[in-house]
Write a structure and sequence with these properties.
The complex is a heterodimer. Chain A is an all-alpha fold. Chain A has a domain of about 80 residues. Chain A contains four helices and no strands. In chain A, helix 2 runs antiparallel to helix 3 and helix 3 runs antiparallel to helix 4. By secondary structure, chain B is of the alpha+beta class. Chain B has six helices and eight strands. A five-stranded antiparallel sheet of chain B has the order 3-2-7-1-8. In chain B, strands 4-5-6 form a three-stranded antiparallel sheet, with helices on one face. At the A-B interface, helix 1, helix 2 and helix 3 of A face helix 1 of B.
Amino acid sequence: MIIALIGLALGVFLGFVLPLDLPSSYTSYMSIALLAALDSVFGGIRAEMEGKFDSHIFISGFFGNIIIATFLAYFGDRVGIPLYYAAIFTFGTRLFQNFASIRRIFLNKIEQKYYKH
Amino acid sequence: MKKSFKKRDLQIFFVFAISGVVMSLFFLNTTKGSGGWNGIVTAKTIYSYQNEISQLQSKNDDLYQSIAELEEKLESYSVDNPDYEALENELYNELSKYDIIMGNSDVAGEGLKIELSDSTRELQPGENINNFIIHNSDVLEIINELKSNGAEVIAINGYRLSWDSQIDCAGPVIYVDDFVAGTPFIIEAIGNKDRLYAGMEAQDSIVQLLRHWEINVNIQDMEEIIIKSRDNL
């Protein structure tokens, strides 16, 4: 958990410091990629809490989701069909589901801790 | 066991670092610039902007072309040694031309002199006197015929007609603008006298109609007629 927070902090710092310029025409793909990344992160947290975390699944899911989501958005733009809606719906719904599971597990833990004694 | 634990930590670390970079980049890009953030740029808006740009570029090209043309024109105007005398002459000619059109200067030249006076025949019973006197419409038609036959300057009883003159009936006399003209009307017209004369004496001209009603029409072609401007009346 600590290591995750450190990584996040370092990433944010690097993002602000590094002179990376993102063309504004790519912001739509960037937002989809960000959504996919967040979904993977929440999925990972949930799996960790449920005790069935697998780093290979986590890593492959993270990069695979980002690539597929970005490709869908790009392809949709080329073809003229808003395919990125598929990514938004899927990842958005899953993100909330993951958060719901995390919440339940978390609350269960607290309950066990304080009401057992 | 320890090694795999470390590897797992490293992977998590990298994933979160990448997420952080993506997030911060996104926020940086959405907050920079003076125009502020106005939504994610989709392919559609990019396409419309590209259209607009290409339109503006073609417009720009047109404008550049017109600049080049105007500069060429300007160059043709700027002669090294301008002939000021000729320029002055040209301007003076133009000025006198406009003076003639506006009626500000006296004009002389060959032309036609038409005298109109009412019929002197005694009326028979049952005849209408209106048929034997000159009306403003008769004068107007003569003027129009003169103009269509190439008259350049026309005067009625010495009053110079200009481009906006009007002829009105005022009982026994006629109004030309504010000038009162009575019989006999003397219409002077400067122009090609032969052409004017032929036009006046043509088979179905207004003059022939007036002569039918025994109105006295006397047409003279003159070598020189002087029509004064209104200022010199």
